[in-house]
Write a structure and sequence with these properties.
Length: 182
Amino acid sequence: MATNKDRDIQVEAAMRYRKETGATAVEFALIAPVFFLLIFAIIEFGLLFWVDLTMQHAVREGARFAITGQTNPSPDPNHKRYNDIIATMNKSSMGLWAKVDPEISVTITNGASSTTTVYDDDTPYVDGMFGESGNVITIQLNCRWPPFTGYIRDFFSTGEHGFHVAATMKNEGFTPPPTPKP
């Protein structure tokens, strides 16, 4: 049989429970935005590093193809070697090429002289843009990546993460491809 003391303890516990039922919701409302901001920041910055590494891989693969002097077989008599090199970088970028919209910068070093050319929308690609046999070439991609999360976007002054990836290699001894006849 329950005594008055037991009933008093039960009533007190029930009242304490009723007083604390809203506390959990308030605590969650205070902590949740910070928690989700941290979770999204971790995901977003992980994605930024992944994009950077993927584009580094793409420029390295493009440079490795460039130093061989090779071209991919094409039935088109006006096929250009630089299209194959850029296509190799595009293919190795795992679909990110169009998203980062890279600007290509090529530095060709021949002995003591060095020339750098930036190829963007205003500068067309040209034959010999990746150097000749024995030249040291540096291919640099200047890229922009827009973060998905608005809160993270605010951390960048332009709203985008700008980054550069590059690869430097020496061209192997190769015979330049023949120039198409008009």
